[in-house]
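User: Hi! I have a protein structure encoded as tokens and I'd like to know what sequence might fold into it. I'm fairly new to this, so please keep things simple.
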């Protein structure tokens, strides 16, 4: 068994640690072979991240929410979102829906990565930042159900907000990365017979970007995961041995369980020194997507720890480029 002993109090607490400006970029598109590309990352951005400088622009003169604390459901007060709309677009624009990290038990929708808000400022896409129920309120599947509902809610308001309902993407870091992958890979939950118009909307998305998100709870039996959040998410005490947890619960919480050949393009950004969410999570997901010929891109950050989940400027350019490429495709 591989040991990962340096658990942190929070899944989103550590800063990015990078070796010299280099990313290992693995891309698979449809049936094309895997490509390995080495590219430079902006040194200034890396230094800013390493020094802990702000990576959020809303607090520094960037866009502010057009709609704040907008309820997308009424089961719990946590079911709120902030919506950052592109100012007066001529045509409907794409939207990125952001799920924050925090071990499914903490965090806030107020912290939106700079690359997303830059897209709003530049008129590329609107953003919805979602709050969801934490595990101290209710365990899985409450969190993914909230995220699915938030996607449907955004689509319900697409015409009003001048959003293209066919160009909806999701992203997040750590727990938010897990939620993004889960909803992106899960089947559509739209109910055409529902009386609630939100529930009639599709929950499918055009792409997903995960920063250091866990993908496969079966790895808890193969690699030591000391962070309590993995077990708390499915209703277990943090000290519960992996072998004593219900296999069906571990399967249902794992995004990798829902991979199929009709899934949208997926990007994962992960540090190879992450001791909170071991990089094996990203590799396993990437391999399964490749096997089913789903477009998948894995960006490995050499020396990066779990701070990669913060989607700082040092690690987000590839994600921004990926999303722009996906959204530039003609609507079907």
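Assistant: Happy to help. Inverse folding works backwards from shape to sequence: for each of the 332 positions I chose a residue that suits the local structure. Here it is:
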């Amino acid at each position: 068994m591989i040991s990962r002993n340096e658990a942190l109090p929070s899944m989103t607490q550590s800063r990015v640690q990078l070796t010299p400006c280099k990313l290992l970029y693995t891309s698979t598109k449809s049936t094309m072979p895997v490509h390995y590309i080495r590219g430079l990352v902006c040194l200034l951005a890396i230094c800013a991240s390493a020094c802990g400088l702000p990576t959020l622009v809303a607090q520094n003169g960037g866009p502010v929410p057009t709609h704040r604390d907008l309820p997308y459901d009424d089961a719990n007060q946590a079911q709120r979102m902030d919506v950052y709309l592109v100012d007066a677009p001529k045509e409907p624009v794409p939207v990125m829906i952001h799920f924050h990290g925090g071990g499914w038990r903490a965090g806030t929708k107020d912290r939106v990565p700079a690359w997303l808000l830059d897209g709003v400022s530049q008129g590329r896409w609107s953003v919805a930042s979602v709050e969801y129920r934490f595990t101290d309120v209710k365990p899985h599947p409450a969190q993914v159900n909230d995220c699915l509902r938030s996607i449907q809610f955004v689509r319900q308001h697409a015409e009003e907000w001048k959003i293209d309902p066919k160009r909806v993407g999701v992203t997040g870091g750590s727990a938010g990365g897990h939620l993004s992958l889960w909803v992106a890979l899960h089947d559509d939950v739209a109910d055409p017979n529902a009386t609630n118009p939100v529930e009639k909307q599709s929950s499918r998305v055009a792409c997903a970007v995960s920063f250091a998100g866990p993908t496969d709870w079966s790895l808890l039996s193969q690699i030591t995961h000391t962070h309590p959040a993995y077990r708390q998410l499915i209703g277990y005490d943090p000290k519960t041995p992996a072998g004593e947890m219900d296999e069906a619960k571990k399967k249902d919480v794992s995004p990798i369980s829902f991979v199929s050949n009709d899934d949208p393009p997926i990007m994962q950004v992960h540090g190879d020194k992450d001791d909170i969410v071991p990089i094996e999570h990203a590799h396993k997901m990437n391999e399964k997507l490749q096997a089913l010929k789903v477009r998948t891109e894995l960006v490995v950050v050499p020396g990066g720890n779990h701070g990669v989940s913060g989607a700082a400027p040092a690690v987000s350019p590839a994600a921004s480029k990926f999303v722009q490429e996906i959204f530039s495709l003609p609507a079907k």
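A useful reference point when you look it over: Confidence is low (pLDDT under 50) at residues 1-10, 12-22, 29-59. Feel free to ask if any position seems puzzling.
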